[in-house]
Structures are given as C-alpha cells and as structure tokens.
C-alpha cells in the first residue's frame, strides 16, 4: 500500500471516474434517452410520435415478435444486461490477472463514450441505431465499473472504504448534476432556433464527450499494481481468464455470506436501477410531464444525493453500514409505493418524491459497494465485482423486464412502478440475514468498525 500522501492523491484521482461517467448516467440513461428513444420508436410504429396526452400504442416487429413501442427502452436495458451477464465475468477474470487495470478501465470508458456521443445521430424513426448504441454504451459502462470498483480495494484500507466510496458517489452526483444543469438550460430555452429534438441530441453528445474527457484524470492519476492471489493456469489469455473464473465459481460456495449479500444487492438494486432508468418515462408518458420538469427533478436528485451520500457515509460509522442500508431500503419502499398515487400534470408531487429518492440514493449505493468489497477474497476483486456490476447502474434486468411486461399487460406505467416495491422488500429480507462479520473474516479481511457502528 502506498504512503498516505500518495494514497490520498490516488483517492482523488479515483473519485473522478464517478464524476466522468455520471454525466452519461444522468443526462442520457436516466433523463433524456428513455423518452427520446420511446418517441423515435413511436414514430416508427405510428408514423408520428405520440404526445403525452395521446401517446402512440402501436407495435414494432422484431424477428416477427410484436414489441410495444412504449416498452422498447426497458427491453433494451434488459437485453444489454443479459449480454453483460456473459461479458462482465470474463472481463473481471481478465482484470484480476493484469497489472494494467487503469488501461482497461479507460479503454472501456472511451469506447462507451464514443457510443454515447454517437447518439447525436439518432433521429426520425431510426430507433434501431438508438438501441444498438445504448447497448454498447451500457455494456462498456459496466465493464469499466468492474475494473474501477476493483481498484478501490487496491487503494483503500478496510477502514477507509465507506468514506472513499461515499466521496466517489457524491462527486459523481455533483458532476452529473452540473452537466445536467447546462442541458436543462439548453433543452428549456431552445436557443439559436434549435428544435427540442436538436437540443436533446446535443445534450446526448455532451454527456459522451464529458465521459471521455474526465476519464483522463483517473487514467493519469492512478498507478499500476501487480495482480495478487490469482491461480496459475496455463494456456492462452482467454483460457487463463475462463479457468480462473471457473475456479472462483467452484469455490464461491465457501463464502456463503458473500453470496447471500450479492443476492440481496441484486434484488434491491434491480429496484433502484429500474427506478432510475424508468423514472423519466413514467413522468413523461404516465404523468404528462415535459422533459424540462424531468430534468429539474433529476437535477434536484443529483444535488440532494451529493449531500445524502456524504451524510449516510458519516452515519454508517456511528450506526453501522448495514443498518443504514436497511433503513434506506425501507425509505425506498415507501417512496416507490407513494409514486403510484401521483396525480397527472402536477410537477410538485413528483419533485417532492425526487427529493426523497435523492436523499437515500447515493448513500445506499456507496455503502453497498464498500460493504461488498469487504466480503471479497483477495485477488478476486474484479471477478466478484463483475457479478456485482451485473445489477449496477442500469444493468439490472429483472426490474426492467418486470417494468416492461407490466406495461405491456396493463397499458399503464403506474402498475409497472408498483411492481418494483417487491424488489426492495425482498432485498431487505435477504440483507437482514447476512452475517457481515462472519463473511468478512471468511474472506480474509479485517473487520472495520464501520460494519457494526460505534458502541
């Protein structure tokens, strides 16, 4: 481990990848691209995009299977996640065997940023290009985050991880919020005679460029370290990666608390990520709110989440990280259930719920990441985080699939949202059964005070 000055310098560089990719997560994945892709799909299905007062209910045909235009965005995220389930574990296995983690992280980041920037060309009825670019960007984001999270274990002691993880999430929300504020002005004002479609596409371009530019900071500020604890497996790099992954899965049953925590996380984070990715569609298509209102709501979430991540990170040291995460899940359940009753064409109730979501969003995600890092056997950080990332930042698929199916069956996004409550309740129940202390000891890590809180 580096000296304190070098370690603090690397912490600051590491934070900036959250700052970099959060612009894509907020501007593109959360706010603009879902409704925009839906409108493009509706243009292809109905000849012209539906309005919020009279939306299109036509179907598209994919391999002779009818797909509701309103479900295209949710199904696209679902498909990207299925591909991620295949790709991410292999990426994790390779990352654990290399000393060039920062190069891997940056390579995936810049590829994803190129796809995100290319969304500026999605227009008219060209929904297929939008689907392809979203899949590429989502998978590259997941791959880069696998390596990024694994680097956390290398640069931070067990006692520091709640703090470092929380600051990274907080800076990410701040960076995403700042770019979103600029895009809010652009979309709302429509300057220079630009249409709403033009301003949306320019905003998508800005998010990709932001992601690419700020990735330079962690790429230059982090240092390479040799891999540790990996099995010696012969053959080609691909064979070695598959071999290590096979060995990890074979021995994973020896870490039951790690697997139980992962199950809990995948359940409740399915709900979190689906709320994030589908909130703009719900507000726009079900509640009749315009993009400007949605951007204001998400902008509020970003800045509230900045403070919430830091505050919940502090509370974790006093009351225990697991207790704080469980409390946040109770709040998530209440907020999502309340969203079922939101009135149409009224922005204020939607904004109030956005504030509540922002408060618990950053802290629950940051503390989950740091808790999971303590449950990973040394030398397998990227492999285990590849499984973790399968449910992270919009790559959950049970939630998006349930959301899309509920809409297709009921023709109402209200029931789609209400279905998500089950994910938070199920995750809370499973998390309550995780013995963190036993899991940390079994993984060979030190038990930090933040796990149980101050006595």
Automatic annotation (TrEMBL):
Instruction: Write out the GO cellular component annotations.
Output: plasma membrane
Its membrane topology is listed as: Multi-pass membrane protein
Keywords assigned: Membrane, Transmembrane, Transmembrane helix, Transport
Where does the UniProt annotation locate this protein? Cell membrane
Every copy of the Major facilitator superfamily (MFS) profile domain together lies at 257-455
Main localization, broad class: membrane
Quote the protein name from its UniProt record: MFS transporter
Q: What is the source species? A: Jiangella asiatica
> Lineage in the entry?
Bacteria, Bacillati, Actinomycetota, Actinomycetes, Jiangellales
